[in-house]
Amino acid sequence: MKAFVLDRYEKKSTLRLADLPMPDLRNDEVLVEVHAAGVNLLDAKIRDGEFKLFLPYRLPIVLGHDVAGVVVKVGPQVRQFKVGDEVYARPDDLRIGSFAEYLPVRESSLALKPQGLTMEEAASIPLVGLTAWQALVEKAGLEKGQKVFIQAGSGGVGTFAIQLARHLGAIVATTTSASSIALVKRLGADVVVDYRQQDFSDVLRDYDVVLNSQDGRTLQKSLGVLKPGGKLISISGPPDPDFARAVHAPWFVKPIMRLLSAQIRRKANQRDVRYAFLFMRADGAQLRAITQLIEAGAIVPVIDRIFPFEATNDAMAYVESGRAKGKVVIKLR
C-alpha cells in the first residue's frame, strides 16, 4: 500500500511517499480502506518531536489521526462491525497512520460514519470532535447558562467546540480575525473578539470555562477572564501531573511535566481556578454520541480545503500556516 512516512523527527521536514506492506491486524481491530484523512496540527507536532517523551513511536511511522473509510476485514474478536461498513475514527496513540491506503483501527475506537456526510466531511470530525467533547463535557462539565471562552474560533477545534457549547446551552465567546466573524457567529458564538483590534483579556470577565489552544502568554492571560471556581483547560500545554499519571509516563518524565506546569498551576490556585491539560484520546462511545448530534443537525462539519493524497505534504504545510478556517482533509478515494 502507499503511505506517507515519517523517517526521523525534524522540524518542518516533509513526509516520504512509500510503498509499504499491508498492516498487521490484531484480534480486536478492523482493517479500514481509507477514503479520507483529516490533517491536524498534532501531526506536525509529532513530526517535530514535541511528544516523543511520552509517545514512544518507533520510527519510521505513518502519520494521520483522523480516518473515514470502509471496513474490508475484521479481527476474530470484533462484534460491532462487519465488512462493508462505512466508519470513521480517531485511531489510538501508537496505532495512528491514516495517511495511507489502509489502517487497522481498534473496535472500541471506531464508529459508524454519520448518515448524510461525505467521507471527507466524516474525516474532518473525530480528533476535533473528541477534543471538544472531552474538554467541554468530560473535564469542564459545561452546563446550560454557563459562559465559555473558546479561543481561535475559526480553527478546527474552535468551529466544532463553538457548536457543541451552543448545543449544551452555554454562552460562547471566541476570538478570530475580521474575515471569520460571520463564520463563528453563524456557528453559535455570542461574543466575538477580533484579536487584531482588541485584547480578549480587556473584554471578557467572569467566565466559567476557558478552552485554551494558543501560546503560553495567552494561557496566562486566560486566568484573568475566569471567575473563582472556573476551569482553564489547555490543549496546547503545558502537561500537568494528572496527565502524566493518565498516560503512565516514565518515572523520569513525571517530574518534568510537574515542573513545566508548576507556574500556571500555582497562579491558577492563587485565583481559585483549576488548570487541566488535555491530550485527547480515542473513544468510540463518545464518537457515537457525536454522531447523534451530527445526524440531528446540531453540529455541521466545517472544511476549509480538500487536498489529493499525493499533496499530503502541502496539506500539512497549509495547516501549519494557521490560515485554515475549519478542517483540512486529504482525499484518497
UniProtKB/TrEMBL annotation:
Keywords: Oxidoreductase. SUPFAM superfamilies: GroES-like, NAD(P)-binding Rossmann-fold domains. Residues 12-330 form the Enoyl reductase (ER) domain. SMART domains: PKS_ER (SM00829). Transmembrane segments: none annotated. GO terms for molecular function: alcohol dehydrogenase (NAD+) activity. Its EC number is 1.1.1.1. PANTHER family: ALCOHOL DEHYDROGENASE RELATED, RETICULON-4-INTERACTING PROTEIN 1, MITOCHONDRIAL. This is Alcohol dehydrogenase. It comes from Variovorax ginsengisoli. The lineage of its organism: Bacteria, Pseudomonadati, Pseudomonadota, Betaproteobacteria, Burkholderiales.
